[in-house]
Amino acid sequence: MSEASQIFTDGKAYERMMGRWTRRVGRAFFAWLDVPDGLRWLDIGCGNGASTEELIARCAPAAVEAIDPSEYQLAYARTRDGAGMANFQKGDAQALAFDNDSFDAAIMALVISFLPDPAKGVSEMKRVVRPGGWAAAYMWDIPGGGAPIQPLHDALHSLGIDAPRPTSSGASTKDALQELWEAAGLASVATRTLRIEVAYSNFDDFWDSNAVPVGPIGKSLEELSPQVKAQLRERLREQLPTAPDGRIAYEAFCNAVTGRVPER
Predict the structure, then answer these.
(1) DSSP H or E run through 52
(2) pLDDT number for residue 3
(3) DSSP 186-211
(4) Phi, psi of 122 (to 5 degrees)
(5) CA-CA distance, 141 to 135, in Å (whole number)?
(6) Is the pLDDT of residue 7 over 60?
(7) N or C: which end of the chain has fewer CB atoms below 10 A?
(8) Cα 145 to Cα 254: distance, rounded to the nearest angstrom
(9) How far apart are alpha carbons 43 and 129 in whole angstroms?
(10) pTM score above 0.85
């Protein structure tokens, strides 16, 4: 996950930009997943621990290993009160440093589109989960416009600027996730679209939350000239759905997938 290690380097900024929405959609994801308590979990690409915290709160795990390529994100994750039982360590989703059948369940939360080879990531996840265990993931529907930062992409595009997207954005569609899980040989594959409200108190809240040097679009915004940034702010003011009291709210949505490792 070299791309993620280079562009997600600020756990605190990520928390304001994406962590709160990660937790919100994570609640819906774990409710849908509906697995037993007391499992041994692997959280692959845990980032700053937002998904890990929800996993612990919702799934009553027996143990949690959480990996990410960014030491900055891991450092923030270790400060979370609700994630104290997790063992956070540096790791690569496409080369997991765990033995076969080490876990009862594994997830990738908002990760798969950042993998250069999503199929390899799914194969590795299946390898480390025991027969009968669960392998699951969720990712903002990037081609469908489901990411919380989609308004930034829309505004930039209207100015003739195409901001970069994750390497494997196409892997986030429901059909692509279904195909990846089935191609990996997972059984009982199921998918679901999860929808949440993204809301900001006013325009400054939206801008201060999203115009940070985190992720592909954040790095792109950092390189804009002051003049273009001013144009972008004005375009956003025109395009964002803003209530009379200044509140900004719109829908974001993820595609989720789960499957079982077949008995051998």
Answers:
(1) helix 50-59
(2) 46
(3) -EEEEEEEEEEEEEESSHHHHHHHHS
(4) -70, -40
(5) 19
(6) no
(7) C
(8) 10
(9) 12
(10) yes
